[in-house]
Specification:
The structure is a homodimer. By secondary structure, chain A is of the alpha/beta class. The first copy, chain A, contains 14 helices and 21 strands. In chain A, the strands form 6 sheets. A 7-stranded mixed sheet of chain A has the order 15-17-18-13-12-19-20, with helices on both faces. A 5-stranded parallel sheet of chain A has the order 9-8-7-10-11, with helices on both faces. In chain A, strands 5-6-21 form a 3-stranded antiparallel sheet, with no helix packed on it. In chain A, α4 (96-118) runs parallel beside α5. Chain A is globular. Chains A and B meet through β5, β6, α8, α14 and β20 of A and β5, β6, α8, α14 and β20 of B. β21 (488-494) of chain A pairs parallel with β20 (444-449) of chain B, so a sheet runs across the interface.
Chain lengths: 507, 507
């Protein structure tokens, strides 16, 4: 496919690429040939107003037609073939196998929401009339759900497919009946365009109003601001750093009309290693944690960043194993030079904190590669340095040595919000594990037992969210079928004749 | 019961009433004898930290125990007997029958949530493990819900029982497992204290940590700010004016951690009268709308404020009937002198708008009484004056004459968000009614056919909310059993042993 470098505005490719920004090859650490047009104010306005126009017909489509549209998007993504994989690998530095897996997940997500639509979008709640009730008759009331309207979505740097152009936010918004105005991530604009081409084909095949999807390219911050503050935009989805997420949140806070902002931000994914588990499996567990940490160079939102371990006879073995495993790791390419640079700065900051020891670093690589690192500290230092709870995006972890179980319980009270936490325990730890589970539940969106946090299952019972800063909206998930609810809202129909009710609510 | 005039801080009555504010008798338009202590900064801090301490035990109570607690609160409210009715009538000017009805609704709401807890708080979603799945095994994942934490609730002026101290927000937060810090409305502090006394008795009977409920009295704006910006407060419920609601929203926007704000603000509850309905029932419909408007002197959030009518042969009969009915109405006492004053100002403002005609006023009353009013205008004037979409709190309505059905469809596009809208139609209007329904659905939280908007059914299929300014959080309802979801959030348990799972999620 030819990469136009343009914005897709309601079915039309638009913009001048000449003065635009350049795509970047993460592996080779060089600029690529394609240039991309920063979307103009007018183009963004056109995208949003076209989305609002499309909303009327799209929101009234039968759910099964939306399902067919989602499946067709998935098919068109598969049709892109190796070109998509090669482009995503070049732009992100992620290996082909990972991108292939992510493509499978992306198509799987689209199909998950299609299945949901085919099976009935939601459970109808119907309370029939009771004309004889005293003192007042009970009216017929039926609870349904409506799509919110135009949704702004921001692509993630670390998931160029599954959390980007046709990723979970887009899939769930389209499933809900909402048009999407997608802001591509400037680190993978060509991958975004390929996916947008696939969506455009699906729009033609399914005969959907092309206003239902626009792709906005750009490196200009004003673009994001224009999208999130536009009066016709009724919800925003974002996956990225706490810093950028909170800039968007503050812009949204300036709106006359409050709208939901679904920001999935930072998480250190604490690991709690109980005493008997440590005694039984110190070495195996340390190796498994390092393996989880190294996935995607630690550029996963669920990467295990802080490990709480109760001191004991096997603690040295645990720390030594982790140290040795980290020292063996090869450096790997990071998503962008900016991310590589932030990682280096974070590691340097940690090294400057009194009471934090650098146990080992992985093998060094070239400038834009990630060199893994493992640190250790004690609870007092962890408690005194809030910086140690900031997510380090990359393969760095911190072991926090707790003097005893009470120290571990104390550590939990210090935690900010996280996407996940894992408890590592054996049967004889169960009473303590229960205490950790009860306390930690209020700090996380997903609580895991004897498994690693990396790898998020896409299913009805998943929750990918949690207390701030894991999410800006604790009541929602960005992964799994429940994610559709972010873009729907309740409406009660009272005393409506059957002809005026949505299909799911008819008698 | 003796009214102490003090704040209830986690089981202790606290504060100095001497320099406090005075309760006010709305009927007699005079100060009452009781004085009330403005809560101090320290008292509010104590209430919130005690609530957080109580959260641990209260959130872990079996749901059936929370159900018993809610039922006991209801029983203790009934035990207050006539004293509660008399006090609420004096403080609000509402008649005894209305207060008795509202008491029934308040107890009914508590029991509704108790029933919900007894029947299982939520539907468990369980996806079992599949260890043989390729390429990766599927872990066991189970979706449950946790209470958010301490909830701040603000009482409403117009529902001293059902939307106040033990009203819907308190009942749903306590049902969810959240402690409540309640800010009483300064217009009915003695009623608030009586209800708080009932809750305190229920706390003792059910052996609940008294930190689970505190009552904050005060007329000082700093009190509200301290509650909504406190880091331990995890959600806020509010029912009141758009002006005050948006002040709270802006304070909440300053927080480091975003939290949900459930503000139920203004609504004009548009009425759409279709052509054949007008021809068939002009006079009866006008009378019915005036009757709905006059309920509680129009001091209902669902009061029918704007009536869109298509011009036709029967329009004069419709307008003349409404005019005659309004002219006959007696003036009635309003909730507070401040509300009476705001109402007078709003009516005066409308009279100053060119193109708006005052058709009739009700009989005049004394200074603090509401004199009903009915205005008419055309679509051009309605379109040009956003002020006409501001809620007038009191029994005033505006007839907007539409030249034809297209004018009516045009009017819908102009509307801001509303709690409700009603479509008045007969069978021969059905095709047009369908168009109105489709367009209006996106502007309201409840869409009604041939019934009046006043009267909100408390049931599972109710939605009391809607697009801003009806609600600051379009995805939620403040009435009905779904209201509990405002104070719960999802959590996924992965690979958890049965012993560590909540009851509802165990195998």
């Amino acid at each position: 496919m030819t990469i136009t470098g343009k914005n897709l505005i309601a079915g039309q490719w638009s913009g001048e690429t000449e003065n635009g920004f350049t795509a970047f090859n993460a592996v080779e650490n060089t600029a690529m040939k394609d240039k991309f047009a920063d979307a103009s104010e007018q183009e963004i306005e056109n995208a949003i107003t076209a989305a609002q126009r499309a909303f009327t017909s799209y929101s009234q489509l039968p759910a099964t037609k939306r399902a067919t549209f989602l499946r067709t998007i998935g098919e068109q993504i598969v049709q892109l073939g190796d070109e998509l994989v090669e482009m995503a690998c070049a732009e992100t530095g992620l290996p082909a196998m990972r991108i292939q897996g992510e493509r499978g997940r992306t198509v799987g997500q689209l199909n998950l929401f299609a299945d949901l639509l085919d099976s009935g979008e939601y459970q109808a709640v119907i309370d029939l009339a009771d004309t004889k009730r005293a003192p007042l008759p009970k009216p017929d009331t039926r609870l349904g759900y409506l799509p919110l309207g135009v949704v702004g979505v921001f692509a993630a740097s670390n998931f160029p497919l599954a959390f980007s152009t046709a990723g979970g936010d887009t899939a769930s918004a389209l499933a809900a009946g909402c048009p999407v105005v997608m802001k591509a991530h400037a680190a993978h604009p060509a991958t975004a365009e390929l996916i947008a081409q696939a969506i455009l084909k699906a729009i033609a095949i399914a005969e959907i109003d092309p206003g239902v999807f626009s792709l906005i390219q750009g490196k200009n911050y004003a673009i994001s601001s224009q999208i999130v503050t536009h009066p016709l935009v009724k919800a925003v989805g974002f996956t990225g750093s706490e810093r950028v997420g909170m800039i968007l949140q503050q812009q949204i806070n300036q709106r006359a009309e409050p709208i939901p902002f679904y920001g999935e931000l930072g998480s250190v994914n604490p690991q709690f290693i109980l005493a008997n588990k440590l005694a039984a499996d110190a070495s195996e567990l340390a190796s498994a944690l390092v393996a989880s940490l190294m996935m995607g160079q630690g550029q996963f939102c669920t990467s295990p960043g802080v490990w709480f371990v109760i001191d004991g006879a096997e603690y040295p073995l645990f720390a030594e194993t982790a140290t040795a495993e980290i020292a063996k790791t090869s450096a790997g390419v990071m998503l962008t030079p900016g991310i590589a640079n932030s990682y280096k700065q974070a590691i340097a900051q940690w090294q400057d904190i009194a009471g934090v020891d650098l146990l080992a670093q992985g093998q060094a690589g070239v400038e834009h590669f990630c060199q893994a690192a493992i640190f250790s500290t004690d609870l007092a230092t962890f408690s005194a340095n809030p910086l140690l709870q900031e997510e380090v995006f990359g393969s760095s972890a911190l072991i926090v040595k707790c003097a005893d179980f009470n120290d571990m319980l104390q550590a939990i009270t210090l935690l900010k919000g996280n996407l996940t936490a894992s408890i590592h325990a054996i049967d004889s730890d169960l009473a303590n594990a229960k205490q950790v589970a009860l306390a930690t539940a209020h700090k996380v969106g997903r609580l895991i037992y004897n498994q690693m946090p990396t790898g998020v299952e896409v299913c009805a019972s998943m929750n990918h969210g949690g207390p701030f800063p894991a999410s800006t909206n604790i009541r929602t998930t960005s992964v799994g079928s429940e994610a559709i609810k972010r873009f729907q809202r309740p409406i009660c129909y009272q005393n409506m004749p059957n002809e005026l009710l949505p299909e799911l609510l008819k008698s």
